[in-house]
Amino acid sequence: MINAEYQQGQLGWWLMTRWQSTTPNGQTLLILPPFAEEANRSRRLFSELCQQLAANGWTCYLPDFYGTGDSQGDFSDSDLNLWQQDLCQWLESAKLPQPVHLLACRFGALQLLGMWPALMQQIKPGKLLLWQPQLDCQKFLQQLFRQHQASNLLQAEKAPSASQLLDKDLAVDIAGYSITPKFYRQINALKPDLSQWQHHTLCWLELSTLPQLPIPATNAWLQIDADAATSSQKLLALPAFWLQQEPLPVALLIQESLQFLEGDQHD
């Protein structure tokens, strides 16, 4: 059963989608979605995973933070601090069964790291599942700026770069999404501390057609220093679903996720 309910946040209403079993088993999953268009391209996969989990008794939650998805506000209202406040306020009132398992996809992993101390005041974390996590805020910004640069190539005159405009306190439109100087500064201020996840049961699923894990992913895994007995980093020979408009065959991603989340539910 799927249900979507609006929550009253600090600035307005934001949407929380819930997948729930008629016979819940007390297992809960909270999803931190990707950013902008990547979030839209991930929804089908989130839904597929959550439907299968709900069929097995789980309750799963996917937020549309204020200014995103079907929530109130415009994308120019994106605010990491606001999103953290709204989520923590909801967690405080929702009183979810503990522990709460977490799925962070792409930018959602960077966001999760940033709000980790605040989240730990509200929940006891269970298993942590990462889908192609983006853990470098500068690399994340570079990827956004490349989209802006590509659109500028069509112009006759050389236009200022996205970073130049944002540094001058001017908002930038990137692929139809307005990035404000405030949001840009918030991302720049993130200081991801991967050691926060050191003692947690973790599964990192990296999707690539390359024969081995990318060096940045390997280095980040070393920084986490996860317990090899309970945690793993896996390379799945799958296409980048977050970059494609059309649905892609990624059944292996769902299969690996279910195996990790539902394996030994006494963890």
Tell me the layout of helices and strands.
Blueprint: E1 2-8, E2 13-20, E3 28-32, H1 37-55, E4 59-64, H2 80-94, E5 100-105, H3 107-119, E6 125-131, H4 137-152, H5 162-167, E7 172-174, E8 177-179, H6 181-189, E9 202-207, H7 215-224, E10 232-236, H8 251-262
Parallel strand pairs: 3-4, 3-5, 5-6, 6-9, 9-10
Antiparallel strand pairs: 1-2, 2-4, 7-8
Helix pairs in contact: 1-8
Protein name: Hydrolase 2, exosortase A system-associated
InterPro entries: AB_hydrolase_fold
Organism: Rheinheimera riviphila
Overall pLDDT: 91
Helix content: 25-40%
Run of helices and strands: EEEHEHEHEHHEEHEHEH
Strand order of the largest sheet: 1-2-4-3-5-6-9-10
SS elements, strand count: 10
- How far the N terminus sits from the C terminus, by CA atoms, comes to 26 Å
Q: Which class best fits the helix and strand makeup?
A: alpha/beta
Could you name the CATH topology of the largest domain?
Answer: Rossmann fold
User: Any idea how many domains?
Assistant: 2
Please mark out the parts with pLDDT under 50 across 5 or more consecutive residues, or reply none. Answer: none
Oligomer: single chain
Q: For the record, what is the CATH homologous superfamily label of the largest domain?
A: Alpha/Beta hydrolase fold, catalytic domain
Biggest beta-sheet profile: 8 strands, mixed
Organism: Rheinheimera riviphila
Protein name: Hydrolase 2, exosortase A system-associated
InterPro entries: AB_hydrolase_fold (IPR029058)
